Amino acid sequence: MGNVTLFAKLLPFSAPTIISGRASLGILVLGGFLLLRGKSILYQTQGDFWKVFGIGILFGIHWVTYFHSIQVSTVAVGMLSLFTYPVFSAVLEPLYSGKRPSLFAVFLTVFSLFGVFLIVPEFSKENSIFMGVVWGICSAVLYALRNILTKEMHLHYPSSQILFTQLLATVIVVLPFSEGLFEMLSEPKYLLYQILLAGIFTALAHTIWIRSMSQLTVTTAGTLSTLSPIYGSLAAWFILGEIPPDRIWLGGGVILFTAILEVYRKKAEMEEA
To answer: What is the spatial distance between Cα 239 and Cα 137, in angstroms, rounded to a whole number?
Structure first.
């Protein structure tokens, strides 16, 4: 899913507008899939529906803050800031279960934030890198919460149904702020970008990712996801001409190293359980 970040730069519209188009077309793609497969979009209880819908609101805000992070800075900065989410998950998941986070998880979180510190040249709202990091970390926290809550619901409902509901929530929340949506979807080039973004990088990619939470080991899924900032940044380098400065590689290395450590810490924790 690393190349999805390129669309934040290729589409000359605000983050809410891009996300509104992405979610709207994603609903059409997933809705068609569910209809052809004869799958239901109904939930066992209204409580389950509203819970998934609420998670979808978090998901939509995560998308908007993520794309905005990239738009105000660079693809590399936005992606690396987002990939602090594994260590935030390590702290938030135990708290959600009523447990105390391990000291090592807290250490990883602090170490990951140190990597973010290395990326930022100046702590000022006038600095684009700093603002990209701020928005990226906000997105990371929201993404961690969304994944924790979605994993629980996936025990009872298929991934495509969960994503369909989350996309619906995203559209309802983001649409009022989507200036220029019709203009974007009426331009053939931008419409093609949105079809790729919604069909391949949203409906297909996120359905596979949600399903992987239950079918792949934590180590495999986590390691694969950690590769995203690497090939996403390389794609931005070759396609957009965004050459990451040395401090990005240094800070990014620290962030990705802590993310991989968290993957293996989680694996060891599960084996002991």
So the answer is: 25
